[in-house]
Amino acid sequence: MTISEKVAYLKGLAEGLDLDTTKSKEGKLISVMIGILEELAMSVEDLEENALNLGEEIDVLSDDLADVESEVFDEDDDLEDYDDDWFEVECPTCGADIVEMNTVRKRLSAVKGGRFAENCRPAKVYSVILSDILGDPLDMIASGPAYPDSSTCAQALTIASKYSLELSEKTIGLLNRETPKSLSNVETVVTGSVKNLCRAAAAVCKELGYEPHILTDRLDCQAREAGRFLAAIAKSHQADRKSLAYIAGGETVVLLTGKGKGGRNQELALAAAEGICGLEDTAVFSVGSDGTDGPTDAAGGYCDGRTKQILNRLGVDIYQTLQENDSYEALRKAGGLILTGATGTNVNDVAVLLIRRH
Questions:
Q1: Phi, psi (degrees; rounded to nearest 5) at 130
Q2: Closest Cα partner for 88 from 171, 4, 19, 193?
């Protein structure tokens, strides 16, 4: 069943409830929610079609890149240190962020850190970037194969020391090999990022009658704190007479204190449920743009003013659930999981607070 079919099924169930969508608050809210789901379903189908077309174009580019590799890399003796070797650096829970990881990673590659573009000279390189790093640092996205590297060998070695990484002599030697600091043969364009995602979300909210406010496109904190922050904003604007949408894009982190199942977007939504409990026509949802949130089949989570009450009736305590990092099961029981499937793209996450007024 496609996502559009699933939404159509939910719409049929809602119509079967015979709720008055013009006078009943519940009916109006359900009608708006289904409308948003229909918009999301159409957007996902468009993305799937675009992904299919993009896949065909990538296949063509892959063939072209194979030709470039055979012409450039096979004749470069300087790349022999990278041939037929895998460099494995284990750091599953050390706490390194993506910039730190890529500072090390790009020095273990024959193409990252600007080396791809360097080895393509004198040919021109046109680099099309889909950013999944906050702030769009071009030398860090995909470890910057076609952009001058701003990091240094000293920084890479400092990171290795900071996290007590166990490295072979050969790996240490590669960390000491400097990357290109200037490239004159590259033109770069960013086609997608979390900034675009926030603007797109704002445009949809406006079409649905909300006044959109983009709070940030660099959300970078614990998921629980982000959820509580959105809940605090919701409380502050309950007296407003216009419908409001507050949008925050970025990528939060989860503080692991338990052994449950969930993801950062689900944890954000569940944390918000505590704060917006009892608020009318108020909802928070958070989703990953790639359709995946943590090791689950959900893209994210949704809550409204009734979520905590529903969970209480089911014997689920939000605080204890968050301590156990078990947001998936709690939201599943409350009907708050957002399931989209893989979207074929990744430009971080977006969280939205909706306050509906009539």
A1: -110, 105
A2: 171
Could you tell me where in the chain the CATH 3.40.50.10180 domains are found? 76-191
The conformation of residue 18, written as its DSSP 8-state character, comes to: T
**286, β-bridge pairs:** 301, 351
All CATH 3.40.1480.10 domain ranges of the chain, comma separated, are: 194-355
Bridging pattern class, strands 300-304 and 186-192: unpaired
Residue 112 CB contacts under 8 Å (≥ 6 apart), including other chains: 102, 105, 106, 142, 143, 144, 145
Q: How far apart are CA 34 and CA 202, in angstroms?
A: 18
CA–CA dist 156, 174 (Å, integer): 10
Q: Could you count the other beta carbons within 10 Å of the beta carbon of residue 35?
A: 15
Q: Which CATH class, in words, describes the domain spanning 76-191? A: alpha beta
Residue 276 carries which DSSP code?
Answer: T
Handedness of CA 239, 204, 309, 15 (dihedral sign): positive
d(CA 116, CA 197): 29
Q: Look up residue 193 and give its two tokens.
A: 């990022």
Coil, strand or helix at 96 = coil
Record the tokens describing residue 199, joined without a space.
Answer: 């603007």
Strand partners, 353: 246, 284
Structure token digits, residue 120: 């393509």
Question: Domain 194-355 falls in which CATH fold?
Answer: glycerate kinase, domain 1 (3.40.1480)
Q: Tens-of-pLDDT digits for all 358 residues of the chain?
A: 677 777 677 677 767 777 676 766 766 777 777 778 778 777 777 777 777 877 777 777 777 666 666 655 554 445 455 554 555 555 555 567 788 888 998 998 889 999 999 999 999 999 999 998 888 999 999 899 999 999 999 999 999 888 888 888 888 999 999 999 999 999 999 999 999 999 999 999 999 999 999 999 999 999 999 999 999 999 999 999 999 999 999 999 898 899 999 999 999 999 999 999 999 999 999 999 999 999 999 999 999 999 999 999 999 999 999 999 999 999 999 999 999 999 999 999 999 999 999 8
What distance, in Å, lies between the first and last C-alpha atoms of the chain? 35
* DSSP structural state of residue 144: -
